[in-house]
């Protein structure tokens, strides 16, 4: 019986190349938003001051640590779909929907910026779902579902600090 030769670089996972490209493009924007949010959160961790210093410093560290792990997962999904993941500041700046915060905001302004950034990242991820559903891409759907849960819960918790 003859063995069939396969091209090891050809991707045949049941998702068309066109759909994989569109999903990877969407995930690239999601990665850019996630990285921008990571950097913002880490910056705020370093620079927060005031009466809420200890609690915010610790909370921001928990959040940026969680985000750091997510970056790898998103980038690796892009790679599994057969496309290069963006990885430079200039690429992230072009792809991200979140704008850089300049200066050092007051503690509660930091919290407000993070709420806005988590919500923006959730919207970016949610916008990929129609492509993912159409392509029957369950691994990406699972990744997005898990990430949306984190962003929405974190936004809620941060938003709670701004109420009352």
Automatic annotation (TrEMBL):
Gene3D superfamilies: 1.20.1260.10. InterPro entries: DPS_DNA-bd, DPS_DNA-bd_CS, Ferritin-like, Ferritin-like_SF, Ferritin_DPS_dom. Residues 31-163 form the Ferritin/DPS domain. One of its GO terms (molecular function) is ferric iron binding. Pfam families: Ferritin (PF00210). Belongs to the Dps family. This is DNA starvation/stationary phase protection protein. It comes from Oxalicibacterium flavum. The lineage of its organism: Bacteria, Pseudomonadati, Pseudomonadota, Betaproteobacteria, Burkholderiales.
